[in-house]
Specification:
The protein is mainly β and 361 residues long. Helices cover 1% and strands 48% of the residues. It contains one helix and 27 strands. The strands form four sheets. Strands 1, 2, 3, 4, 5, 7, 8, 9, 11, 12, 13, 14, 15 and 16 form a 14-stranded mixed beta sheet that branches. Strands 17, 18, 21, 22, 24, 25, 26 and 27 form an eight-stranded antiparallel beta sheet that branches. Strands 19-20-23 form a three-stranded antiparallel beta sheet, with no helix packed on it. Strand 13 and strand 14 form a beta hairpin.
């Protein structure tokens, strides 16, 4: 089912009240002196475990290092995804778990009555079909799943990634995540972070064959406030016109897109979708068609926005896909009752044909 970027997940703590967490992207540092294990295929799930040491100095702790371990479980399958919908779902092949880390009493006492804790982590992704350089590990826990008193333990159970593949082919995931960064929140405001660095050891490259039909849709490179690393995706779109194709008339130009593009990215969570862009026009009357569309029909199978093209000269006109656009998904958080937004800024990387119309005198 669709999830927002703070999807609720139940977390386990072991023997003491605690729980946690989340995960979001953190840039992976180079492997450095770590040993790279020979590449392994993934006909079955592959589990890669690593140890981390956590820095608690932001809470005044100067005692012995506190350790935690994390396991990335890389499943055997990887399938093609396009559009924005996969970004709001658990789509990747990785699940992620940590052991229980017991916090010193001096730190736990400063972490009482929390309402959220997040964990940032990422695993390197490479290969022709990879659309982003990292696999984003994510999840969340809020409110009642956290202890009322001090947080005595840290643990993540079944956090998952949103690894994004834009075309069929071979991809490689290379754990471990170089670092884990926990961010506690009180009254939904961030407290000082707890950063855990991986203990140098083996790096395992796991091979995936990404399956799915190749797309001939225009390809965009998108960055956003939601996904911190740019990624590539074919975005299915079509351009149509209505009206009289004759000098002195005005054409209504429509850009429409199904679920493999702009439509229904998070139908159970989104409250509004907005698109701003321009369609380049070349030919007898060069120019552009401004588009500025908003809809609250967030579960519609198609997103569409229209603009006007005034016809002043006869001849052939080519209407192309937007070179750049901004797409915004507004999501209502049920717990906090406030609206968040994910803003995607996208630039065209391919050269699709677009639509040609003949304007009569």
């Amino acid at each position: 089912m669709p999830r927002s970027w703070w999807v609720e997940r139940q977390m386990l703590t072991g023997t003491v009240l605690g729980a946690l967490v989340v995960a979001a992207v953190l840039a992976v540092t180079p492997a450095g002196a770590w040993v790279v294990r020979p590449a392994a295929p993934a006909p079955h799930a592959v589990t890669v475990s690593n140890r981390y040491t956590c820095d608690l100095s932001n809470y005044g702790y100067t005692g012995p290092p506190v350790g935690i371990s994390a396991s990335a479980v890389l499943g055997p399958a990887a399938t093609l995804q396009t559009g924005f919908s996969p970004l709001f779902r658990e789509t990747g092949p990785v699940s992620f778990n940590t052991s229980v880390a017991t916090l010193p009493a001096s730190v736990a006492s400063q972490l009482a009555n929390l309402d959220r804790i997040s964990l940032q982590a990422a695993i390197a992704v490479s290969g022709a079909s990879a659309a982003t350089p990292v696999a984003k590990i994510w999840g969340t826990v809020l409110g009642a799943l956290l202890p009322v008193g001090p947080l005595t333990q840290l643990q993540v159970v079944n956090a998952v990634d949103t690894t994004f593949f834009s075309r069929p082919g071979t991809a490689w995931l290379t754990p471990p995540a170089a670092s884990l960064v926990f961010t506690p929140y009180r009254n939904f405001r961030p407290l000082p972070t707890i950063s855990c660095q991986a203990v140098p050891g083996q790096v395992t490259a796991v091979k995936y064959t990404v399956t799915g039909p190749a797309s001939h849709a225009p390809v965009y490179s998108c960055a956003s406030t939601f996904r911190t690393t740019p990624y590539l995706s074919p975005l299915s779109m079509s351009i149509t016109t209505s009206g009289v194709r004759q000098v002195g008339h005005v054409l209504t130009v429509t850009l429409s897109s199904p679920g493999t593009g702009l439509a229904a990215p998070a139908p159970n969570l989104a409250s509004k979708l907005a698109f701003t862009g321009k369609l380049p026009v070349t030919g007898a009357q060069a120019g552009q068609v401004p588009l500025n569309g908003t809809t609250t029909s967030t579960d519609s199978p198609t997103f569409a926005t229209t603009g006007q093209l005034r016809l002043t000269k006869p001849g052939a006109e080519r209407i192309s896909y937007p070179r750049t656009f901004v797409y915004t998904v507004y999501t209502q958080n049920r717990k906090q009752q406030n609206v968040k937004k994910a803003v995607f800024t996208c630039a065209l990387t391919s050269n699709p044909a677009g639509l040609t119309v003949q304007v009569a005198p």
